[in-house]
Amino acid sequence: MVKWKEVIGETFGTRMTRTCLDCIENERKHETIDSEPIKVVIESYIDLGDKLYNIRLGENNPKKLSVYKEYFEILFLRESEQFYTCEAAKFTSADLISEYIKQVAQRLTEEEHRVKSYLHSSTLGSLLFILDDVLIRNKLDLIYAGAEFLLHNDKKQDLTILFDLLSRVPGAIEKLKEIVEKHIYLTGLQVIENIAETALTDAKVYITKIIKIYNKYLFLIHECFGGERSSFIGVLNSACSKFINKNAITEASGISTEACGASIKSAELLARYSDIVLKTSDRTRINFNKALQTIDKETTKGVLNTTDKDRKHAVDLVIVRIMQHRKILSHTILVQEVTDQLRDRFLPEISLIQKRIEDLTDRGYLKRNSDDMNILEYVA
Q1: What is the pLDDT of residues 151-179, one digit of tens each?
Q2: What DSSP string describes 207-238?
Q3: pLDDT reported for residue 132
């Protein structure tokens, strides 16, 4: 072993490794190379591990891989870190976030393919740890700033990539949740302030805006944060509770979510808000009876009779129409919207609506979200 190191390892072996590393760097610079010679060198290093110990060793036995690791992997990992440190240094502004995260995602894919193509599989874990550290963990501040930019510009595809990258770093998603919650809260405040004067006399405008905000970010969560849907829905509920509790309209009318209890989900707040205002109508100028009769109303033509059978059909029709349009909706908001749209014909009991929702779910028209059973999804 000592003689091999002196004669082969420190001369010919070193030159072979240097040639391989130079080729890999060229490939990382998007030059076309012939990877077959690299594969041959790697296999020869691994075979030498067997021959030096004169026994057949398991695929991942440390002794079998000793030559490969000493004469190739150590240098390969060191130069990989240097290469990607230089590449990451070019990312200096959050405005470049879209370009950067796509590049990082591409690099991760390339390195996985590289290992599978001509290196030993045991190298992959160490290599990806270096990439995660250099390209993601060391750039978290800029990536978080970039997340705010993507949220502001509604870049859903890029947010999905960013979420996947942050998921590779333990604990990194928690800060993203804070950023998302703050963004939803500030967006909600701004939207409500923009319609404050109108909403004080027309509750339809107020409730419609709240529902629109809630659904916008519910869709975003389902599309971009699949692996953490339930926790991000909790973030959405918290943000909506905050901006409903503190905005120009609730402050002017004296209404807040505190009257309902501190832990109410935003979907429940929307349903309960009208009850609070009705009970305190002497303190506010909002006519919720009129508003709730007209908000998002779609006619159900041809349903004139009010027998139990006709009512079931009417409720089914309205539920399907709403879900075809909304795609994703909380159970509470769906019940409220069905009630509003049928109010002029008959006032459906909550229990009837709930039974029809369950029946449509059983029949495959709807399904409950796997992360949050309160969320319903339309099945196309």
Answers
A1: 999 999 999 999 999 999 999 999 999 99
A2: HHHHHHHHHHHHHHHHHH-GGGHHHHHHHHHH
A3: 97
Report the distance separating Cα 362 and Cα 212, nearest Å: 28
| Rounded mean pLDDT, 180-186 | 96
User: Reduced to 3 states, what is the DSSP secondary structure of residue 109?
Assistant: helix
In 3-state terms, what secondary structure has residue 375?
strand
Query: Is the model's pLDDT at 351 over the cut of 70?
Result: yes
Q: Which two tokens stand for residue 79?
A: 């130069």
Contact 42, 132 (CB under 8 A): no
Distances (CA, A) of 329 to 175, 353, 373: 26, 15, 11
* pTM for the whole structure: 0.68
| Consecutive H or E run containing 89 | none
Residue in the structure block whose two tokens are 């303190």? 283
Q: What is the dihedral sign for C-alpha 65, 67, 68, 73?
A: positive
Least confident of 151-160, 191-200, 206-215, 294-303: 294-303
Radius of gyration of the chain measured on its C-alpha atoms: 30
Res 12: pLDDT:
62
- Map residue 329 onto helix, strand or coil: strand
Per-residue pLDDT tens digits for 25-43: 999 999 999 999 999 999 9
Domains and CATH numbers, the chain: 2-152 (1.20.1310.10), 172-294 (1.20.1310.10), 308-378 (1.10.10.10)
Q: Where are the alpha helices (DSSP H) in the chain?
A: 2-4, 14-28, 36-53, 66-68, 74-88, 97-118, 123-131, 140-152, 156-166, 172-194, 196-199, 203-224, 229-245, 248-253, 266-279, 288-294, 308-326, 331-342, 350-362
